[in-house]
Amino acid sequence: MDLENDNESGLICATFTRYQGTPLSIKSGIEIDDDGNMCLYLMEEDATNFEGKEKYTVISDSPVRRDFNVLFSPDQFSEALQAYNELKASGCIDIPDELLKYQVGDTIQIAGINDNGKFRYDVDGLTNGNMAILATCLYFMKYQTNEYALDLADEMADLYGSIITI
User: Fold this and answer.
1) Nearest-angstrom CA–CA distance, 139 and 11
2) Beta 93-94 vs 11-16: how paired, if at all?
3) Contact 73, 57 (CB under 8 A)
4) How high is the pLDDT of residue 6?
5) Which of 10, 108, 114, 129 has an alpha carbon within 20 to 30 A of 137's alpha carbon?
6) For residue 116, what pLDDT band results from cuts at 50, 70 and 90?
7) Which among 132, 7, 140 has a CA at the least distance from the CA of 62?
8) 78/69 Cα distance (integer angstroms)
9) What does 92-117 look like in DSSP terms, one character per residue?
10) How does residue 148 score in pLDDT terms, banded at 50, 70 and 90?
């Protein structure tokens, strides 16, 4: 995923059309908890075209759409599943009741091992909602890593700026 085109709002919209079920968008946001940790909260399901979409960083599975910032490709599936599992284990994802039907859970089956020794998954039964959540989790993990790196760079600049004087 390419994070170059991020908007600064902390709002994410994953719009998926190529998997099972009705094409949809899942809106999410990034929130800082009381301990200073970034958390992902999924907000609601919407149509693929909705009013105010420009306020979101839009993730799409379709390269022919023109209204996206980040393209999710099938080869990112394993990384997205890992991000989802990490967020679930850490409690840094909030999924409201109306979106629980798209939780990945037991819907993903291992279909074997590919040539490079990684698991190959059977994704035929996954819905647009399942994939939208996985792509959002991957984007969030990369966003969080980039934010942390930028914070460290700022701290280093502040430190070196106070040491070096001209």
Assistant:
1) 11
2) unpaired
3) no
4) 42
5) 114
6) confident
7) 132
8) 21
9) -EE--GGGGGG--GGG-EEEEE-TTS
10) low
Q: Which two tokens stand for residue 120?
A: 């190959």
* Main-chain dihedrals φ then ψ at residue 134, nearest 5 degrees: -60, -45
CB 112 within 8 A of CB 120: yes
Tokens representing 58 are: 């839009």
As a whole number of angstroms, the distance between CA 149 and CA 11 comes to 20
Q: Domain 11-163 - what CATH class?
A: alpha beta
Tell me the backbone φ, ψ of residue 12, rounded to 5 degrees.
Answer: -125, 140
Considering 58-67, 79-88, 110-119, 151-160, the range whose residues carry the highest mean pLDDT is 79-88
Helices 128-163 and 77-90, interaxial angle, to 10°? 70
Binned at pLDDT 50, 70 and 90, residue 95 comes out as very high
Contacts of 92 (CB under 8 A, 6+ apart): 37, 38, 39, 40
Q: Residue 16 in contact with residue 131, Cβ under 8 Å?
A: yes
- Confirm whether pTM is higher than 0.70: yes
Cβ-proximal residues to 2 (8 Å cutoff; 6+ apart), any chain: 70, 71
**What are the sequence ranges of the domains in the chain?**
11-163
SS3 1: coil
On the question of pLDDT at 4 being above 80, the answer is no
